[in-house]
Amino acid sequence: MKKFYIAFTMFVVLGLLLSACGGTATADNKLEEILARGTLIVSTDPAYPPQSELVEGGARAENTKCASDQHTSSELTGFDIDVALAIAEKLGVEACFVTPDWTLITGGNWANRWDISIGSMTITPERMSKLYFTQPYYTTPAAFYVYTDNTTYTDPAELAGKKIGACTGCTYDAYLAGTLQIPGETFDYVVANPDFVGYETDLNALQDLALGDGVRLDAVLTAQPTGAGVIADGFPLKQLGEPVYFEYLAGAIDIASTPDPAPFVQKITEVLLELHEDGTLLQLSQQYYGLDLTTAAGLFDWEMLDQFK
Amino acid sequence: MAVDSLNFPAKPPADPNLDMGLALVAQQRKERLIQTVKIGVVWVGLIIFLIALLLQFNFDPAYVFAHYRFVLEGMLITIGISMASIAAATVLALLGALGRLSHNPIAQGVSGFYVSLVRGTPLLIQIYIIYLGLPQIGSTLNSMGYSEIGRLFTLTAVQSGILALSLNYGAYMTEIFRAGIQSIGHGQREAAESIGMSRWQIMRRVILPQAVRVIIPDIGNQFIAMQKDSAQVSVMGIWEMTYRANRFARQDSKFMEMFVVAAAFYWLLTIVSSWLEGMLERRMAHAYER
User: Fold this and answer.
1) Third-level CATH fold of A28-139+249-305
2) What is the C-alpha to C-alpha distance for residues A263 and A256, in angstroms, rounded to an integer?
3) What is d(CA A158, CA A194) in angstroms, rounded to the nearest whole number?
4) Which superfamily, per CATH, for B61-288?
5) In A, which residues are within 8 Å of B70 by CB distance?
6) Out of B136, B200, B247, closest to residue A46 by CB
7) Cα of B155 to nearest chain A Cα, Å
C-alpha cells in the first residue's frame, strides 16, 4: 500500500515537473519576450522539399539555447529554413525549429508552443481569422500536371469534368472548388466542374497520377516547384500550359499568442522588407529554385491586409 | 541368500519400461525439432517471396541500405514513448479495474464512463484533443488568474503523446485487469475474509499476485500494439520512426523504400518484445510448474 502511494505520488510529481518546464518570462509583448529569451521558435513541416526537409545525419548543434524538444538549424535544410535563419540573424537571436503537422500550424491556437510559422503559407482570408501574416517573402505559381504520355489535353480548360487530385484543405482544393480568395488577387477559374480527389499532401496525389494516365487521376494541381521537383526525381509527368495563378507566401503568427504579438508581426515585416531590399531573399530563391520568385513578394502591399483592427 | 538379493548391483538391471519411455521422449524431441525446422523453412520461403514481390514494385534496395540509419535513429523515441505509456496505462488500468469492481457508485460510474468514452473514440482524435484542446482550458484558467495551473495544461508534443496513449490503452487494459481479477476463484476471497484480512489485504496478497499471471500475456500483447500505435504521435512532429521514414522519403520520393525500412524495424521491435514477454510469462509461471 505504502509503496503504491509513493510510486503514485512520484508519478504525479514527475508529470507536474515536466509540465512546469514551460517559459516563465514575463514581457510586455511577444517581440520583447523573444529578444529576452534569445531564441525564435519557428514551426516548419519538413514534408515539402525544397522548402523544408530533414538532414540525414544532422546532429543537434552544441551550445544551443533551443529547448530539448526543439530542433537546431543543423537538423533541417531548405528555403524556408534559410529564410528563418536570415530573420533570426536580423533579430539577433537563435532560430529553433519544431515540426508539427501542417494542419496544426494553419489551425492557429498554438498555445505559445512556437512563435512563428516560416512555412510558405499562402495568405487567405480564412487563415487571417486565426493568424497574422507578415510581408510575403516569395510567391508560388500554381500549375496543372498530367501524365507524360497524354496528348489529349493541351490547355487546363480542357480538364473540365475530369478527376483532378490536390491536397485537401489547401489553396488548390479551394481553387478547384471555385472559392479561393487571396487578398489583392482576382481569379480565373479555368477548369469547369472538376471531379476533385482529395489527398493528405500534394505528393500523394502526384504519386497516384504517376500510376498512369487516368488510372486514378487525370491531372493534379500543385505548386510549380513541387511539380518540377518530382519530375526531376523521375515521375512520368509534365506541366500542362501556363501557371493558373500565383500565391503570396508569408510568415504567420498566431493571433491568440500572448503577450501581444502585434509589434512582433510589425517587426518581422520590416525585417523581411530589408531582406528583400538587400537581395538576400532573391539570392536564396535563385539558389533553391533557379528562378526569381521573390521580387513580386517584395512589392506586396502589406498595409492593405489591415490586420490590427 | 536373502541379504545378497538386497545388495543393489553397480548397474541396475535394464528396465524395459524406462527404456521405452526414454525412447519415446527422444522420438518426440526429434519430431519437434523436425517440425521447427520445417516451420523455419516456410518462414524463409515467405520472406524470400515477400522480397521478390517488393522488387517488382520498382523497389530500390540500395536506397534502403544507404538511408536506413536515419529511420533507426527514431527507434529510441518509439521505445521510450511506448514504455512510458504502457507504465502509465498499467496504473490507470489497475485503478480503472478496481473502480469497475468496487461497490462505490462514484468509482463505478467514473471508471465505466472512462472505459466507454476512451474505447469508443479514435486514438488520433484523442491526440488532437489533448494537444489542441487542453491549452485552451489552460488559457481560460489563465484569464481567470490561475496562471500557474493554466500553464500545466499546455503539454509538449511528447507529453501529449504519452498522455493520449496511456489514456487510450489504460481503457482497454482496464477490461483486461477486470477479467484477470475476476478469474480468481471466489472461494479464495471468502477464505481470506474468514481469517480476518481486510479488502485491501485480500486484493494485495491473494488476488493480484495470481491475477498478474493471467494479465501479463495480455499486457505484452497491448505493449506490442502500442509500439505500432505510437506512430500516430508523429502528427505532432515527434521524430519517431514513422515520422522520419515519411518525411525523409519525400526528399527523393522513395516512399516504398522508407516505409519498408520502418515496417522492418517495427517488426524487429515486436519480435524482441514478444520474446521478452515470453520470458516474463515463464518466470511468472514458476510456481505453477510440475
Assistant:
1) D-Maltodextrin-Binding Protein; domain 2 (3.40.190)
2) 14
3) 10
4) MetI-like (1.10.3720.10)
5) 54, 56-57
6) B247
7) 6
Residue A21: its pLDDT value, please?
A: 47
Chain mean position to CA B144: 42
Pairing mode, if any, of strands A237-254 and A195-199? unpaired
Please tell me which residue of chain A has the smallest CA distance to B148: A20
Expressed in angstroms, the distance from the first to the final Cα of chain A is 60
CA of B171 vs chain A CAs: smallest distance (Å): 18
pTM summary value: 0.75
CB contact (8 A) between residue A69 and residue B157: yes
Complex ipTM, two decimals? Answer: 0.75
Convert the pLDDT of each residue in B254-284 to its tens digit.
888 899 999 999 999 999 999 999 898 888 8
For residue range A152-195, list pLDDT tens digits in order: 999 999 999 999 999 998 889 999 999 887 776 778 899 989 99
Domains of chain A by residue range: 28-139+249-305, 140-247
The residue-averaged pLDDT of B63-75 equals 91
In chain B, domain spans: 16-56, 61-288
B145 and chain A: CB distance < 8 Å anywhere?
Answer: no
Cα–Cα–Cα angle for A287, A293, A295, rounded to 5 degrees: 110
**CATH code reported for the domain at A140-247:** 3.40.190.10
Q: Which of B92, B99, B221 is nearest to B168 (CA)?
A: B92
* Chain B residues near residue A57 by CB distance under 8 angstroms: 69-70
Q: Whats the size of chain A, residue-wise?
A: 309
Q: Do domains A28-139+249-305 and A140-247 have the same CATH topology?
A: yes
Query: Chain A residues with CB inside 8 Å of B255's CB?
Result: 207
Determine the Cα–Cα distance for residues B177 and B218; give it in Å rounded to an integer. Answer: 9
DSSP 8-state class, residue A307: -
Residue B205's nearest CA partner among B223, B224, B189 is: B189
* Residue contact B154–A112, C-beta within 8 A: yes
Exposed / middle / buried, residue A44 (Cβ in 10 Å: 0-12, 13-18, 19+): buried
Q: Is B177 exposed, middle or buried (0-12, 13-18, 19+ CB in 10 A)?
A: buried
Question: A54 and chain B: CB distance < 8 Å anywhere?
Answer: yes
* A1 three-state secondary structure: coil
Residue of A nearest to B200 (CA): A1
DSSP H helices in chain A:
2-19, 30-37, 79-91, 102-106, 125-128, 171-177, 202-209, 224-232, 262-277, 280-289, 295-298
Q: Which of A3, A113, A231 is the mutation pick for testing B, counting most B CBs within 10 A? A: A113
Amino acid occupying residue A260: D
Angle made by CA atoms B241, A225, A142, in degrees to the nearest 5: 115
Q: CB distance B237–A98 less than 8 Å? A: yes
- Secondary structure (DSSP) of A180-213: ---TT------S-S-EEEEESSHHHHHHHHTT-T
